[in-house]
Amino acid sequence: MNSMNWVRGFNASVGLLAPQALASKLRREFMTPHTAPPRDWELPLLAQAERITLRFGLSALRWGSGPAVLLMHGWEGRPTQFAELIKALVHAGYGVVALDAPAHGRSPGHEANVVVFARALLEAASELPPLKAVIGHSMGGASALLATQLGLRTEALVSIAAPSRILTMLRRFSRFMGLPRQAQAHFVRLVEERAGIPVGQLDSARYQLDFPGLIVHAADDPMVPFSEAEAIHQNWSDSRLLRVEAGGHQRVLADPQVVQAVLQLLESVRHAPARVLAS
């Protein structure tokens, strides 16, 4: 029996006897990130960055100057995972700010969730020039979509490998961990309490997405199914869906066709007639 099967078996047994205790333990583990250090290919870009600290302690990296583009990495991710995209944006004349999400990198905190990520984007935007675009990967993409419903203003948004519906991801995680049904229900409730927003509301089908966007997803993503991107696209009339055949969950960030599609979106926004910013 491998270790994951042992964990599932343990959770299945304990979850029947003490569902609330097990759900509380899993909730803490689920919301406590462990960030890995940058890889060698990220280091040159990291050396070129300016480290900035925002008003309430949030840490970020900045490159270039020009119209502002704000980036948010995914769960247990890093700003420099966007390396190829950042280099292309700076070369095209944009100023890029990439956040260390709360409880990640040098930003404060021990726990985080999609709502905390979204509020971090709002905090950053309040200290930056008007945003030309927001780009988010995985949970960063989900948080960017949510942030627009909480007041974030941007001319365009790019969602990469993001889930459409948070409740689906919670249920998938709890089933993967082997929680019995009663423990699953407690787990979702505890996550909801911690996030401070009913998880049923964290769903792109409920959002008003009235600005141009790009949805990127790899068909072979092992963590977030491609169907999640299709659901976001269905709920977002002014969006383009870009399917990458082979990019996994992380490699898609460096795909040349993704970089080109992002630049095309920004170019179209730059030359579009003036419009009221999303808020």
From TrEMBL:
The record's section on Pfam families has: Abhydrolase_6
Q: Which UniProt keywords apply?
A: Hydrolase
Residues covered by the AB hydrolase-1 domain: 69-259
Presence of the UniProt keyword Nucleotidyltransferase in the record: no
Q: Which InterPro entries match?
A: AB_hydrolase_1 (IPR000073), AB_hydrolase_fold (IPR029058), Carboxylesterase_BioH (IPR050228)
In alphabetical order, the GO MF annotations are: hydrolase activity
Q: From what superkingdom does this record's organism come?
A: Bacteria
Keyword Zinc listed: no
- Its protein name is Alpha/beta fold hydrolase
